[in-house]
Amino acid sequence: MKNVRWGIIGSANIAKKSVIPGIQQSETGEVRAIASRGLEKAQEAAEQLNIPVAYGSYEELLADPEIEAVYIPLPNHLHKEWTIRAAEAGKHILCEKPLALNATEAEEMVEICTKAGVVFAEAFMYRYHPRYTMIQDIIKSGEIGELRGLHGTFTFNNANDKGNVRYKKEWGGGSLYDVGVYPISAARMLLEKEPQATTVNAFFSKDHDNVDMMASGILEFDQGISLTFDCGMWAAFRNVLEIVGTEGRIEVPSAFIGHQNENDHFFVFTQDGRREVEVPMLNQYALQADALGKSILSGEPLPFPASDAVLNMKVLDACLTSAKERRRVEI
């Protein structure tokens, strides 16, 4: 299959450690170039990751006619600008989550990409792993009965790194933006519907530019089903999703960060006991790159179109409003 030639706009850790190796391991993609705000930094990353071309500015990369698609791992407040500039340059785009700072920005980005005729997707890599199709199949089979609720957690402790971009309020910092979006998107995906309201309580830290360092919330869906979740950047590491039914439950111990080993398996608990469901040991970043690659090369529909990112941002907007104003917010 013909390769999609990728360019990387920025040298964030997520790009260097996960997304670039994933594209390089994919069936459809090759990483042709990387750009940073300084040439030396770009050259260092290019040498480290065996990337042929390094650019000292994002503009130079977008001007490269060899580049067909770009990945944008920049701080959240820069997603809109560089997505639009990439679309105007005719590049297909994978943008790191969250897509934007709010749903209004996300809608504008989607509209511009649609007009430009470029493929545009939000980088939620976990959704591309087949284990989530396997989980959906178990839910639909009725093995755990009727769904009653979901609980998701994603927390880690990086609070000592005071200069981290996650702790800059105007840049879209905070735990809801950074990790809360995972259980929120997972609930929407598994339930195949949108929540009606949310209530979120959060800890805003004066030592971290008043971003939310921990948040706990509930998303209300119809039929009395809810997602309860918590997310944090100043708490012990957790990364778990639980799906509860009337006759059993599913526990996903490493719900959002794939390890390509037995840690990616999940468990089903019913009256018959506990069974481990083994899943293929696949690189979810490579799977993500191939989903875009097949859409670019052959026009296959994206499993998760950019319109889904707008809906997720609407939920995130409501969660942030609820946390700041200490009230229930309808979506």
Automatic annotation (TrEMBL):
Domain GFO/IDH/MocA-like oxidoreductase: 134-251
Record keyword Electron transport present: no
Residues annotated as transmembrane: none
Sorted UniProt keywords: Oxidoreductase
Highest taxon listed in the record's lineage: Bacteria
Gene3D superfamilies: Dihydrodipicolinate Reductase, domain 2, NAD(P)-binding Rossmann-like Domain
Keyword Nuclease: no
One Pfam family from the record: GFO_IDH_MocA
Span of domain Gfo/Idh/MocA-like oxidoreductase N-terminal: 4-122
UniProt similarity note: Belongs to the Gfo/Idh/MocA family.
Protein name (record): Gfo/Idh/MocA family protein
Source organism (scientific name): Halalkalibacter kiskunsagensis
